[in-house]
Structure formats: structure tokens, C-alpha cells
């Protein structure tokens, strides 16, 4: 009977949501909830009320789901392995010889085998949750070493351990060894661990479970700590990002053992291992300059569209001002950039934006505070041209026809006289006016105004008085 219970539990843990709902509906239990809640409910059912009818239904669902159209035999579940022998999430070990390692009757694949959670040798597709992680701009994925795989608690303890054993291929080892160093001791090509919620509805961001600790072979790996909070009553936040395991791994054909310790508090998490190449902000900037520049004419058309007369609006917009100062660092823009999804024309500096996200990735627009991910960034070709042509202004105004004018230059023209200044003095022999020397720091200046009027000014030191006559 114990063997049947183990077999039933293994089959239940391989079920998808639809299978779990069918099983729970069969016995009149609630079918609502997240997947990990359905799994827990079904396992409790097997543990405490596994009747022959229930076991038959579990086996029927299992065989129906994994029965193949060809004449190949239906795969059967096996007994669970020792917690040290974890299940492969995608199996390349079928063609690899198995060599016993040191330990009591423990059998591992020598190369490239990946086992997780001690779930037993179920078909590969049963342990592939449809979890996707968001793409990270600073990491180019080279190989997927372990597909996103759910962390399944092995008992009722709050603190769980999930080990994983695998080995790098010779090609992967060479990629790591031959890669340049981003900083002393940190290679550009890395093996990273990523953890996220087991949510299949959308690509997931990195999210650590409570009480996380990662051990690689015989050493614990550093996990990013919490950012201190300056606001009272606000909990400090922890930056969740890929965890670099490379410096603690065996860069050879030897197997590496990774153990993730995590707190089991109801939420379900998945882990994945990737071989990646980490990029710098300079490399991302160069890529953006190569593929992300928006042509000036397209930017001009966007300006016209923004300022187009709205028949439903009572206020006609004749222009929109755009600052040439970056809102991030309060310096003049060098590479004007914004997200294509942003509704504003104001830009920020791509250089500083990428540098800030390299240190603390948020990917939020500093102008409108909305998401501005890397793959949606564009360099404004029109504003780039304006920056090169207008070096003496900090602000410009776009007009309805798509043209522009510098704001400060307009103010200077409006404050300056419309005609040359005439200085009255005595005539010399040639009939030319000579400028009289100022008396006691005073100087009287006359000029012609519009409509025949004249204006006069007294300059007294640094003060100037002006009136019309």
C-alpha cells in the first residue's frame, strides 16, 4: 500500500492545473485556487483518503495525459529517489553513461545530468512548468542549463532544501575561461541562478523566496542584500537579480552540486540555471546607437501629430517646450532618449539612464515614471540634430509645423532694441560723431524708436534708466 501511495503522489505532482481540477472535481472537492494550492489539496487527498476508485482515477488521468500516439509504451512512474538524486528537467542523459559516485547506492550521470527536488524519474515533459522569466538587457543567454522548475517541499518543515547536480560541457567551460573579466575575479560569461514565482500567466521577474540561501559545492554564495529604507514604516527592499555562481563552480567535467535553501510559506517558486554573457552599459549604448535611432523626419512627424489641432478641445496648442537638460543628472543631453511607449517629447540621457540601470535596474522613465524597458528605447534623431545646432540654449520650443526655436534666444531678441544705438556727441572735422567722455561716471545715450519717438538712457555706474520722448 505504501508503494501505491508513493506512486500516486508522484503522478499527482506531475499533473497540470486541468488534471488537478478534474481529480478534485471527481471527489467533490474545491477546484479553485493556484496550482500549488491544488497540488497540496490533491496530495492531502491521496495521503488520507486514497480509495481504490481514487487511485484508479489518478492512474487514468496520468495515462491519458502521457499516452503517446505511437506504439511506444506508456511511461510509468518510479519510486522517489533519495533527496540527493534529483530529477532532470530536460533530459540529455539518455545517451550518457551512468557511473556510480561515492555514496550508498546513489547513481548519477557523469556529465550534463540535472536533477531537482527528488521527484523521481517521471517523463521530462512532466517537470516543465510553463514558467517564463523576463529577458534581462544586461544578460545575453548562451545556454539553458536548467529550465524553470518548481521548488516542491519535501515535508511540512518551513525551511526546505532543494539540491541540484549537473556538470558543464567542455564547450561551456571554454566559454567561461576565455571570456574577459568585467572586474577582477568576475568573468563576463557566467553561470547564474534565477528564481521567480511559479506563475505561468506572464513572463516573471526575479523574486527570491523567504530565507533564501544558495550553496555551491562546499561554499555559500553571496545573495544581494536589502536596500535600506529612509522612510519610517517602510520595509527595506531587496533587489532580486540573477545570482552569479561561476566563481564557486568546478570549471571541469566534475559535477557541481547547488543547494537552494528556501522558506516554505505557501507561495510557489521556480528556479532556473543559465549560461549567460553579462554586458556593460557601454555595450548596450553602442547597440542602441546602432539599431535604436529614430530618423529626424519621423520625430518631426511625431511633433506635428502632438500639436495637431484637436476639434474637441477649446484650447489650441501652438507649441510645446522641451528642455535640453537631462532630468536625471541636470546636465545637457548628449544622447537624447525616451521609450517609444512614452507620450511625451521630453528626453533623458541614454548614457546615464543605462549606467543607473546597470547598478540598480528599475527601467522606469524619469519623466513620466512609467516603464521604459531597454527594448523600447529610441534615440530621438531630431533632438540630436538640434543639440548639435543649438549650443547656447537650454530649452527649445516645437511649433505646429514641426519647426523649432530656442527659447533663450527669443528672449534676448525681445529685450534688445530694434535699431542701432546712436550716441550723441560733437562732430569732428569730417562730420562724424565722436563719443564724449562720460562725466562723473554718467553717460547719456540716445536712440531712434518706432514712429519717430526717441528713447534716452542715463547710465550711472551699473544702473541704467531709460525713458521715451
TrEMBL record:
What highest taxon heads this organism's lineage? Eukaryota
- In this protein, which residues make up the domain named PINIT? 119-279
EC numbers listed for it are 2.3.2.27
**Any Gene Ontology CC annotation:** chromatin
The entry's protein name is E3 SUMO-protein ligase PIAS4
What lineage is on file? Answer: Eukaryota, Metazoa, Chordata, Craniata, Vertebrata
Q: Say if the entry is tagged with keyword Zinc.
A: yes
Pathway(s) annotated for this protein in UniProt = Protein modification; protein sumoylation
Domain SAP intervals: 12-46
Question: Transmembrane segments in this chain: where?
Answer: none
Amino acid at each position: 500500500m505504501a508503494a501505491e501511495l508513493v506512486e500516486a503522489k508522484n503522478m499527482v505532482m506531475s499533473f497540470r492545473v486541468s488534471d488537478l481540477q478534474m481529480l478534485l472535481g471527481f471527489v467533490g472537492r474545491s477546484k479553485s485556487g493556484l496550482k500549488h494550492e491544488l497540488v497540496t489539496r490533491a496530495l492531502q487527498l491521496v495521503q488520507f483518503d486514497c480509495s481504490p476508485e481514487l487511485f484508479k482515477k489518478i492512474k487514468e488521468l496520468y495515462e491519458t495525459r502521457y499516452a503517446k500516439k505511437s506504439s511506444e509504451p506508456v511511461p510509468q512512474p518510479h519510486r522517489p529517489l533519495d533527496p540527493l538524486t534529483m530529477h532532470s528537467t530536460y533530459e540529455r542523459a539518455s545517451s550518457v553513461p551512468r557511473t556510480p559516485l561515492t555514496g550508498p547506492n546513489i547513481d548519477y550521470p557523469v556529465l550534463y545530468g540535472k536533477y531537482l527536488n527528488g521527484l523521481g524519474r517521471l517523463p521530462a515533459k512532466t517537470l516543465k512548468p510553463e514558467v517564463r522569466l523576463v529577458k534581462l538587457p544586461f544578460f545575453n543567454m548562451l545556454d539553458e542549463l536548467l529550465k524553470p522548475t518548481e521548488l516542491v517541499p519535501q515535508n511540512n518543515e518551513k525551511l526546505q532544501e532543494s539540491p541540484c547536480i549537473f556538470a558543464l560541457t567542455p564547450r561551456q567551460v571554454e566559454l567561461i575561461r576565455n571570456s574577459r573579466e568585467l572586474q577582477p575575479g568576475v568573468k563576463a560569461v557566467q553561470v547564474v541562478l534565477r528564481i521567480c514565482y511559479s506563475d505561468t500567466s506572464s513572463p516573471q521577474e526575479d523574486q527570491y523566496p523567504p530565507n533564501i540561501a544558495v550553496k555551491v559545492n562546499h561554499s555559500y554564495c553571496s545573495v544581494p542584500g536589502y536596500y535600506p529604507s529612509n522612510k519610517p514604516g517602510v520595509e527595506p527592499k531587496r533587489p532580486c537579480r540573477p545570482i552569479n555562481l561561476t566563481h564557486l563552480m568546478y570549471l571541469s567535467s566534475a559535477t557541481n552540486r547547488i543547494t537552494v535553501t528556501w522558506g516554505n510559506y505557501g507561495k510557489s517558486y521556480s528556479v532556473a540555471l543559465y549560461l549567460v554573457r553579462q554586458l556593460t552599459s557601454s555595450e548596450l549604448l553602442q547597440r542602441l546607437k546602432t539599431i535604436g535611432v529614430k530618423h529626424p523626419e519621423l520625430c518631426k512627424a511625431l511633433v506635428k501629430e502632438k500639436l495637431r489641432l484637436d476639434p474637441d478641445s477649446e484650447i489650441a496648442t501652438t507649441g510645446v517646450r522641451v528642455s535640453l537638460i537631462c532630468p536625471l543628472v541636470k546636465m545637457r543631453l548628449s544622447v537624447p532618449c525616451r521609450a517609444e511607449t512614452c507620450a511625451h517629447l521630453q528626453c533623458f540621457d541614454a548614457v546615464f539612464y543605462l549606467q543607473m540601470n546597470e547598478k540598480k535596474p528599475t527601467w522606469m522613465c524619469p519623466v513620466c515614471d512609467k516603464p521604459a524597458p531597454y527594448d523600447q528605447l529610441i534615440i530621438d534623431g531630431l533632438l540630436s540634430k538640434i543639440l548639435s545646432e543649438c549650443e547656447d540654449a537650454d530649452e527649445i520650443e516645437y511649433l505646429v509645423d514641426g519647426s523649432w526655436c530656442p527659447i533663450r534666444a527669443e528672449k534676448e531678441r525681445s529685450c534688445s532694441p530694434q535699431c542701432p544705438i546712436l550716441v550723441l556727441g560733437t562732430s569732428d572735422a569730417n562730420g562724424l560723431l565722436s563719443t564724449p567722455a562720460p562725466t562723473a561716471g554718467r553717460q547719456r545715450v540716445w536712440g531712434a524708436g518706432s514712429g519717430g519717438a526717441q528713447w534716452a538712457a542715463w547710465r550711472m555706474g551699473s544702473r541704467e534708466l531709460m525713458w521715451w520722448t
